[in-house]
Design brief:
Elements lengths: L17 H17 L3 H12 L4 H7 L6 H40 L18 H14 L4 E2 L5 E3 H4 L27 E3 L5 H9 L4 E10 L11 E11 L4 H16 L5 E8 L2 E10 L23 E10 L1 H6 L8 E8 H9 L4 H5 L3 H4 L7
The structure holds 3,4-dihydroxyphenylalanine (DAH).
3,4-dihydroxyphenylalanine binds next to strand 8 and strand 9.
Organism: Actinomadura craniellae
Subcellular location: Cytoplasm
Enzyme class: ligase
């Protein structure tokens, strides 16, 4: 009847025209060449070589051609797809090579970089100087004794001959543990360890007790509510103040070197009789700064002397409270400030440095041998 209907029997399909196939191939090759990374190349592969790519879609149209034209079209598509897959393979290899080179550079370990970025800690200078102070006495045969920081009022005051109305017992000086009738305080000094040692050790007793002590002071350059003392106690038959003097002399030599004078000034403590404040000659100016016209000394404030602490012959009342025969035994005691010792021995001028916990303050002290 009529000529064959073109739409049902096409002799030509647009997508299969040679120029269309060449364009699809060239677009694909351009996109592949433009891919600057493996992810982009993957996108190009999907767009130009995937199931829905122009060449794949064109391939599906082959069946619509008259049989005689199919082989020719198939060949052309095959050549175009071959060129695309060849380009993909080549670009894939190039980009992988680039990535490998980059990884080699980026993941290289620079062995010259600093490795110890996390600073190491350091022992606190108060701890080390306290041990050093105690060691001087340990070398003379003393033992190290300990007592609790939360202490019975009886050990902290009563047994040490503080009368019930002694001002040190007030809340202005002492931290009481709630409620007030617990009879517990934060120890205000290390002296209660004297009584504890006498109650628990056989005589004679030679002990030092380093430790933390508490008073209701505000923190400032020279005070802290938490501080440290080194207590000393020697109870034996026939001990005198001369032995105390000798022990302090040995301490000063052990900590500051030989040839420094020690002096005692009369004082008062309820638990010693007689009592004294003990000073050592300034180890920096050796007393010279008191002379007229001499250069000032920062360590002793040009006093020539440095205050070490308190001492004295143990009051027989303390011995009796601790169950010691005060007719037979006598002895002496002392209490030295650890912070004070650190301050003048090392020129630490501000208490804040000791309590703030900055490792940069503590580290240099670790160098001391
Ligand atoms: N406990 C006294 C204080 O904290 C210091 C002291 C003085 C201790 C004389 C002693 C001593 O052992 O004999 O101020």
């Amino acid at each position: 009847m009529s000529a064959p209907n073109k739409s049902y029997d096409p002799v030509e399909v647009t997508a299969l025209r040679p120029e269309e196939l060449d364009r699809a191939r060239d677009d694909a090759i351009a996109a592949i060449a433009a891919a600057s990374g493996l992810a982009e190349l993957k996108e190009a592969r999907i767009a130009h070589a995937g199931d829905r790519s122009p060449l794949a879609l064109a391939n599906r149209e082959i069946g619509a051609l008259p049989p005689a034209a199919r082989a020719e079209a198939g060949k052309r598509i095959g050549a175009a797809r071959g060129a695309v897959s060849q380009a993909l393979k080549q670009r894939q290899a190039e980009l992988e090579e680039e990535r490998d080179q980059r990884v080699l550079v980026e993941e290289a370990v620079d062995v010259t970089l600093p490795w110890d970025r996390t600073p190491r800690g350091a022992r606190h200078p108060l701890t080390t100087i306290q041990e050093r102070m105690a060691d001087v006495f340990v070398s003379m045969g003393f033992e190290v004794a300990e007592g609790p920081e939360v202490e019975a009022e009886w050990f902290n005051f009563d047994a040490l001959n503080f009368k019930p109305d002694h001002p040190a017992r007030t809340m202005q000086d002492t931290f009481f543990v709630e409620s007030e009738d617990t009879g517990l305080v934060l120890r205000t000094h290390t002296s209660p360890v004297q009584v504890r040692s006498l109650l628990t050790r056989p005589l004679p007793v030679y002990v030092v007790a380093p430790g933390r002590t508490f008073r209701t002071d505000e923190l400032d350059a020279t005070h802290s509510p938490v501080f440290h003392q080194l207590e000393g106690l020697a109870i034996d038959e026939g001990l005198t103040m001369a032995d105390l003097r000798g022990a302090i002399d040995a301490f000063v030599t052990g900590m500051f070197g030989a040839g420094l004078a020690v002096r005692m000034r009369p004082s008062y403590f309820p638990f010693t009789e007689p009592s004294a404040e003990v000073d050592m000659q300034c180890f920096v100016c050796r007393g010279a700064s008191v002379e007229r016209g001499a250069p000032p000394c920062r360590t002793c404030g040009s006093e020539g002397w440095i205050e070490l602490g308190g001492c004295g012959m143990v009051n027989p009342r303390v011995l009796v409270a601790a169950g010691v025969d005060a007719e037979r035994y006598s002895g002496w005691a002392f209490g030295l400030g650890v912070e004070r010792t650190l301050m003048f021995r090392h020129g630490v001028e501000d208490m804040h440095d000791m309590v703030e916990g900055d490792v940069r303050f503590a580290l240099p002290f670790g160098m001391e041998i």
